[in-house]
């Protein structure tokens, strides 16, 4: 968006800040701890200035991300739906307690731990006991922070041992119409990026450009989907030399950098494990020996990055009984994984490295992946200084390549951020185990040992396995003419590509399955709690966290540049009011500008334009305020009712007494 177009929005934000009394912290999505020199960056493609629109430095210790604890992030408490899908391999249970902040970093912990729950089997019509033998964490900004186009930078230390396979760390983005691990929300939505009416493909794309009446707030004749852009997906394993069909030679460990897109190539795809053959090979007698594959030509790879020959996409076929979702034969489709394998070094698992993605959305756009170049040895193809200080341009995908191959486009969906570590039998686990090996994934069962990579269980038992993220930052251009593709936008529900109406109309698809759904109480996300967390001292509520508000310093608008603490530990009566507080328990009460149960999160005001809100404003009844009875109003009403009863009783008693006196006087007079 241009600076002129954003001016009214910035004015509204300042008014909102003043109205709420928020003078000590930022109001948008920017962390007050983000250094001044990181408030802007230059594009490595168009060389123009991009401005910070979102950041999290994770400097505040002991933050929690359980649903309802943070205004930007939600850490999941659920199994991966893929674990119960036919052919799925997810072995972990995502637990929000596995995600916290410490030592200036976000830490996503993965360890051995059994989680048991009951799942209803619709085929056998019975409840069944399910187990997951690993615990890990996933963070999402779904329905909280989304952006379309710009620059994403993440500073991260990768988890585990680079030469032991089994962990699946990833930092990625998904279109807001799909919620990661909620398979009902992504079915025939992921990963479509196709805005052309194709009657044959229409059944497989739920929101098709053929639809003249896309209900639930969707724009007519607009093809939509939940597109996926993977900044990094880490593959570890025993280094036994260069991997086949990689050029330049890639070995363990490496990172997949991928765009997942549909529709995919249906015929003559390159086989997994082999590089695409773009020209047919002839035998000596002139006959076709190897027919050319159909694949995306013109992808640019730089430095130590090769095409990824081990994964070209997923076929989402007709579903089987018992799967979490249903797809008919006509709804089956091919999705493509267009990407590269980028060489990593052991140092990526020991200290912070930066990965960067530049995304110019929509027709005419492009996606570029970058890393800080790190050299392994003198024979490795390298760009930059090889010390992890210079940017290495790893890969480029142009919109023209997608359009020429399948008619798809560079994603233009409002997308949210995801950070997680999974454990999957389809990722880094042995694929050539003997038939005698029991296919089980329990580190405490000796019979399962042959199904794991050597050293995997020992690593999880003996080491503290954590993906450590030092910072996440998103930048956008204020000059649409400075870059190719569509304008950059903020928000999860932009008018050009709305999502809120669809989510509201299909909310059950974005909630957990039984038995976890009971705790959701009919809502995919809980309202963020401000204060109320149990405490013993003020420090439990962030009173000791003071410092400089760098956002105020950067804006230089006269607002308070110091932060004097985030909350206080008070008696419950001081938090809820004298009528509701009781006992000796204490809870956190937040200072203006801070939120979360223990006041450790910054308030972020989302003033981005929303198609759903715009539509509701057109309704006459939208201007009639909702009447809600608060607990205090209920108490006041009950008190008044009780007072009225007492007064009535007193009045009746008084009248009876007066009546008796009158009767007595009448007798005496007689």
Shape: globular
> How many helices does DSSP assign?
10
Distance between the termini: 98 Å
| Share of helix, binned | 10-25%
Main sheet attributes: strand count, strand direction, barrel closure: 13 strands, mixed
Beta-strand content bin: 25-35%
- Please mark out the parts with pLDDT under 50 across 5 or more consecutive residues, or reply none: 1-5, 7-24, 664-670
Oligomer: single chain
Q: Gyration radius, to the nearest Å?
A: 29 Å
Number of strands: 32
Broad structural category: alpha+beta
The average pLDDT value, as a whole number, equals: 88
Note down, in words, how this protein is organized:
The protein starts with a helix and ends with a helix. The protein is an alpha+beta fold. Strand 21 and strand 22 (366-374) form a beta hairpin. It has ten helices and 32 strands. 44% of the residues are buried. The protein is globular. The strands form seven sheets. Strands 1, 2, 4, 5, 6, 7, 8, 11, 17, 21, 22, 23 and 25 form a 13-stranded mixed sheet that branches. The longest helix has 39 residues, at 631-669.
Task: Please supply descriptive tags for the structure shown above.
670 residues, alpha+beta, 13-stranded mixed beta sheet, 10 helices, disordered N terminus, disordered C terminus
What is the secondary structure topology, with strand pairs?
Layout: H1 3-20, E1 40-42, E2 49-56, E3 74-75, E4 78-79, E5 92-94, E6 99-102, E7 105-121, E8 126-136, E9 138-140, E10 147-148, E11 150-157, E12 167-175, H2 183-186, E13 228-235, E14 254-261, E15 281-282, E16 288-290, E17 300-301, E18 305-307, E19 313-316, E20 333-343, E21 353-360, E22 366-374, E23 387-398, H3 399-406, E24 415-423, H4 456-462, E25 465-476, E26 489-490, H5 500-505, H6 517-520, E27 546-548, H7 550-555, E28 562-564, E29 567-571, H8 572-576, E30 586-590, E31 594-595, E32 601-602, H9 611-617, H10 631-669
